[in-house]
Design goal:
Layout (H helix, E strand, L loop, with lengths): L1 H43 L9 H11 L4 E2 L7 E2 L6 H13 L4 H27 L2 H12 L2 H7 L6 H17 L6 H15 L9 H12 L2 H26 L9 H8 L4 H4 L23 H18 L1 H16 L12 H34 L4 H23 L4 H18 L6
Antiparallel strand pairs: 1-2
């Protein structure tokens, strides 16, 4: 009876902790959703004014049902395959359900839908590591820094969706095994397919998730199921691109432009302090008017970028090193618009604190991985070291070819926090 009483007390404590965590995290979501909404509302007002190529798509979906953005970037050229369809259609769905095109309310609802995934990833890790107070403190610091909030709670670009989904996928991969409920397997596959539809970068990540699932579970049947989920997602995207952009492909029609911007003679003087997007406004860098489709423009820019790499291999290698430095090491603000030094001053200190924490965690993880490898760590620990390394490197790959800024690094913050929490209990795992 004494043992049973102790177990019941432990269960009660866990229930209370879960309840307190959920309430506090919900307050966190609401408070910072409102603050982000105020910041974003001043810039965009409604969905049709969103930047990063989404506003024009949403406007055309709402007004004509067409998934096209015409003349918004290149004269005489319509774009459809430049942005993945989930985010525009998701925001249109919210607008239709809520009966409002107002960014303020949509930001709050979007975060109430997506940010609980971040809470779930943290809560799962806290329970698995069984060191609730210390790990809670570790998590809290980065989550309250302005750059993390601005990027993660936003609706205007992909990181606002990627951060919570990737964190949840990563946490599930860390703790999943052959004895996990099959519903957890399905949840992982659904989230992995969602990642695939959020950002083209995950074309290089999502297949590895299925491979890592097999390494962790050794379940051939469910590995096949997970692969089927992903293949079906790929087929749908390729079919979607064929319908709207006349090409059966998984590629983005902005891919060539990103390669071009990251590998050009001007890259050296602009990157990483300022955004390379300013190159799109330079008249001398505009595509010829003889190009009439997004794929012709894409191939034009891609060929220019690859020609630069071929003809300037040393300079291209230098750019890769700078991009790797920005992605893995740098703590300074970057990606400013030219002349916007005030943004750097406004967020410089909190941004650098957050990035310094991120870099410190990354350094500690690398030191731990090297030490564990030399000491021939257990199979489970090695498997999860592989999970961390492959997810991080596959995510970083496309940014080494194109370019990376602070917001692109943001998803790695929670990966580092969650994995460092896991490594605190190496003996038990």
């Amino acid at each position: 009876m004494g043992v049973k009483k102790i177990l019941n007390q432990d269960v009660t404590k866990i229930k209370y902790f879960n309840l307190i965590f959920v309430i506090l995290f919900l307050v966190y979501i609401l408070v910072f959703s409102v603050l982000t909404a105020q910041y974003t509302y001043a810039r965009y007002y409604d969905l049709e004014n969103l930047g990063f190529g989404y506003g024009q798509l949403i406007k055309n979906i709402l007004r004509s049902g067409l998934y096209k953005s015409c003349h918004s970037h290149y004269v005489g050229v319509c774009l459809s395959a430049h942005r993945l369809p989930f985010i525009p259609y998701f925001l249109v769905l919210l607008k239709n359900v809520l009966g409002s095109n107002d960014c303020y309310i949509i930001i709050i609802v979007k975060n109430l839908i997506f940010m609980p995934l971040t809470g779930l990833a943290i809560l799962l890790t806290l329970h698995k590591t069984k060191a609730l107070l210390w790990h809670s403190l570790l998590v809290l610091v980065p989550l309250f820094t302005p750059p993390f909030v601005i990027h993660t709670f936003n609706i205007a670009y992909e990181e606002g969706y990627v951060v919570p989904v990737l964190a949840c996928v990563f946490a599930l991969l860390l703790y999943i095994d052959k004895d996990s409920p099959k519903g957890i397997y399905i949840a992982l596959f659904i989230l992995n397919s969602l990642l695939f539809f959020l950002k083209h970068t995950f074309l290089y990540v999502c297949p590895f998730v299925i491979g890592l699932f097999f390494i962790k579970t050794k379940d051939k049947i469910f590995t096949f199921v997970g692969a089927a989920f992903l293949v079906a997602s790929m087929f749908y995207l390729a079919s979607f691109n064929y319908y709207w952009a006349d090409r059966f492909t998984l590629r983005a029609s902005w891919e060539g432009l990103n390669i071009f911007k990251g590998n050009h003679i001007l890259t050296d003087s602009i990157y990483p302090k300022y955004t390379l997007d300013m190159m799109e406004t330079m008249p001398e860098l505009q595509p010829p008017r003889t190009l009439h489709t997004e794929w012709e423009v894409n191939e034009y820019y891609a060929s220019k970028g690859y020609d630069f790499i071929k003809n300037n291999p040393i300079k291209a290698l230098k750019f890769v090193c700078i991009k790797a430095f920005v992605f893995f090491i740098d703590i300074r603000p970057n990606g400013l618009l030219y002349g916007q030094e005030y943004m750097k001053n406004r967020y410089k200190l909190p941004g650098m604190v957050m990035m310094a924490i991120n870099r410190l965690l990354f350094l500690l993880i690398i030191i731990f991985i090297i030490g564990a490898w030399r000491q021939k760590a257990g199979v489970k620990l090695l498997a999860n070291m592989l999970v961390y390394s492959i997810i991080l490197l596959s995510y970083a790959f496309s940014y080494m070819v194109g370019f990376a800024y602070e917001r692109h690094v943001m998803p790695t913050l929670l990966l580092n926090v969650l994995f460092m929490m896991y490594l605190y209990k190496p003996i038990s795992v």
